């Protein structure tokens, strides 16, 4: 029996990638998908951010699995992110998108450079986005392994998406954020449109600000994303 093929990765910019969700959900995928290292170059004034009353920016470069995943079968995603973080709001890590009735829901998590230091950063966006940051130890040298994972209780898949910091040496996970509404469409009864059960998963980088210093106006942030891995439930 032939093993399912590993899907390709494709470059997009922000939620413009939502066009992928118009394709049929691909069910025949490896349970564990491991990808080669990814390098993303983010130009100044690139971002993925949503804030009332009218800010909705989604031009950040994203490298996504080129087929929509089944939201119900998604278990986890993990990546190690690093860069020469040096400009306010430099960032990169994991990104997930879900099309909804009125907007595109998304979560991004990884490292963000804030007030002169790289921090662990997570943004979850529904109608509007929120933002949380946590310290990144100096010993990490601007490098972080981040994981998102569906919460389970026994064999039951429940509503929350958890964000974890992963210790590279021990594999131990530390939960830092719970997104309680992420799997809402998977738990609601009744018939839902196909797109609401689609999930797009990938990695991203962004440089929302312009670097300071003469001649740096167009300087790109180079984000290294290693060990990108996505796992699916078997059933």
From TrEMBL:
Xref: Gene3D superfamilies: 2.60.120.200
Pfam families: DUF1349
Superkingdom, taxonomy of origin: Eukaryota
Protein name in the entry: Uncharacterized protein
Organism classification: Eukaryota, Fungi, Dikarya, Basidiomycota, Agaricomycotina
């Amino acid at each position: 029996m032939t093993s399912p093929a590993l899907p390709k990765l494709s470059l997009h910019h922000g939620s413009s990638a939502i066009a992928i969700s118009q394709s049929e959900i691909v069910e025949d995928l490896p349970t564990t998908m491991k990808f080669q290292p990814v390098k993303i170059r983010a130009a100044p004034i690139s971002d993925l951010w949503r804030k009332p009353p009218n800010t909705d920016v989604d031009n950040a470069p994203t490298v996504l699995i080129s087929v929509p995943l089944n939201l119900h079968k998604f278990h986890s995603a993990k990546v190690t992110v690093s860069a020469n973080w040096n400009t306010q709001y430099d960032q990169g890590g994991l990104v997930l998108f879900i099309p909804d009735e009125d907007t595109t829901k998304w979560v991004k998590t990884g490292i963000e450079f804030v007030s002169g230091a790289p921090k662990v950063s997570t943004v979850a966006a529904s109608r509007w986005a929120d933002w949380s940051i946590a310290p990144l130890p100096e010993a990490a040298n601007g490098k972080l392994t981040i994981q998102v994972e569906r919460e389970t209780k026994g064999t039951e898949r429940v509503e929350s998406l958890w964000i974890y910091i992963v210790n590279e040496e021990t594999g131990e996970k530390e939960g830092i954020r719970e997104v309680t509404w992420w799997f809402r469409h998977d738990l609601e009864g009744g018939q839902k449109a196909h797109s609401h059960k689609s999930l797009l998963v990938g990695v991203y980088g962004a440089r929302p600000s312009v670097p300071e210093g003469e001649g740096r106006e167009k300087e790109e942030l180079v984000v290294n994303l290693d060990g990108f891995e996505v796992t699916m439930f078997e059933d």
